[in-house]
Amino acid sequence: MENIEPLCVEDAPDAPSAYGFAPCEGGVCAAAGVRASGVSAGFRRNPNRLDLALVVADEACVVAGAFTTNRFCAAPVALSRERAARGRARAVVLNSGNANAATGEPGLAVARRSAQIVADELGCDAQDVLMASTGVIGVPLPVAPFEAGVPAAVASLGADAAHAHDAACAVMTTDTRPKEVALVGNVPDGRGGEVTVHVGGFVKGSGMIQPNMATMLAVLSTDAPLTPEAAHEALLAAVRVSFNKVTVDSDTSTNDTALLLATGAAGGEPIDVDSPAYPAVAAAVRGACVELARMIAADGEGATKLVTVSVMGAATPEDADTVARAIANSPLVKTAVFGHDANWGRVAAAAGKCGVAFDQDRVDIDFLGVPVCRSGLTVPMDEEEMLRRFDESEVEIAVNLGAGACSARVWTCDLTHDYVTINGDYRT
Questions:
Q1: 188 Cβ partners below 8 Å, 6+ apart?
Q2: Which of 174, 215, 227, 254 is the catalytic position?
Q3: Domain coordinates of the chain in residue numbers?
Q4: What is the dihedral of CA 264, 266, 267, 272, to 10 degrees?
Q5: How far apart are CA 259 and CA 231, in angstroms?
Q6: pLDDT tens digit string along 192-224?
Q7: b/e map of 76-89 (b: 16 or more CB within 10 Å)?
Q8: What mean pLDDT comes out for the span 146-155?
Q9: How many C-beta atoms lie closer than 10 Å to residue 280's C-beta?
Q10: Which CATH class is domain 306-424?
Q11: φ, ψ of residue 173 in degrees (nearest 5)
Q12: Residues 6 or more apart whose Cβ sits within 8 Å of residue 309
């Protein structure tokens, strides 16, 4: 059999490791000046399930936010979008079990009231409290669980990994596991020395996942002294290549929220977008978001495989993204992965249907690092070897369109019987 080299899929050259950042413990509490908690407040029927999370900065600090583009946006999104625009926050309160979406003015009143309860407990301005909710749409969100749960959450605040973990667990809905990340590295302090900076956070997301963003709530924190403008730019740049590149089922949520708190507790001069330290901190924020995005895809409802779709050789970045999304959202591709079938014809068909111009005679496709198509034609493969490769937890699909130099990467998962079961039984 002819020896054909697999496609070369390069990692991002500006990964956090390129700036000396490495994984560490602590989740959202890895950043100095951040505390968190997770308690059972009564949003869910199970009294043993955590359903209220609180993330608090020791002092009001810089904040940036990114929110759903869904026009049916939830009340907490409207409230947090308005308050985050000020560039300042002290706390984020999150609940699971009820999305407070499609609830009208009463829903907005509940969002404002719940934020006020947090502010009263912390002794801060209510405008400095942001919130996020996830769960069933169209059901009124009661205030009583906030009245009972917020005091308990404030009393339980802690700055260690265990408290960060509780917060990550409290926002889970159909997630099968909490999703956390933390990175640490040194950056210039603006005075000729260095300071140690942390970036950490958690995310929830498992279904109703499609950019922009995903069905997800994410809270990230850093102790880097970012300016509001730098925090905003770093978060949006990170979201574009992470949470906006995840798809499980092509549905966009009403509640998507990603927030970045920057306490500045690491010290050093303020970091703006022109500061020498900015590229490193931005890379760490981006790396944290990418890792969390991969966790979302890997935990897609009913998923057994994380699927990474890399499209190269496109004429424009938009073309690359369109083709990658078409492949990642294809039920036929996703079910083929579930069936451990390297059916590259389904990949080719998905790419060809999406309206992007390319010459099929120049297209190359790899499955799991194995060439299966070259110049639009089949490459013989060892089926038994391919089945062995499908034992891996991640399935990589790489496509080169042969039409240019642009690329894109999207994360998804396989489509299984359990996806139908989970979503068929969601409210019952």
A1: 194, 268, 275, 276, 277
A2: 215
A3: 16-298, 306-424
A4: -50
A5: 10
A6: 999 999 999 999 976 444 445 445 899 999 999
A7: bbebbbebbeebeb
A8: 98
A9: 23
A10: alpha beta
A11: -115, -95
A12: 324, 327, 328, 397, 399, 409, 410, 411, 412
Residue 424 CB burial class (10 angstroms; 0-12, 13-18, ≥19): exposed
Strand partners, 201: 181, 220
Task: Note the pTM of the prediction, 2 decimals.
Answer: 0.90
Candidates 368, 372, 348, 369; CA nearest to 359 is 348
- Structure tokens belonging to residue 351: 């790419």
Helix (H) or strand (E) holding 38, with range, is strand 34-39
Percent of the chain with pLDDT over 90: 80
Torsion sign over Cα 184, 185, 186, 187: negative
The span from the CA of 51 to the CA of 94, in Å, is 8
Task: Say whether 428 is catalytic.
Answer: no
CATH for the stretch 16-298: 3.60.70.12
Tokens describing residue 263: 């306490």
Contact partners, residue 161, CB within 8 Å, separation at least 6: 25, 26, 27, 29, 30
- The contacts of residue 271 (CB under 8 Å, 6+ apart) are 187, 190, 224, 225, 226, 227, 230, 277, 278, 281
**CA 412, CA 309: separation in Å to the nearest integer?**
8
User: 129, 91 in Cβ contact below 8 A?
Assistant: yes
The answer to whether the 16-298 and 306-424 domains have the same CATH topology is no
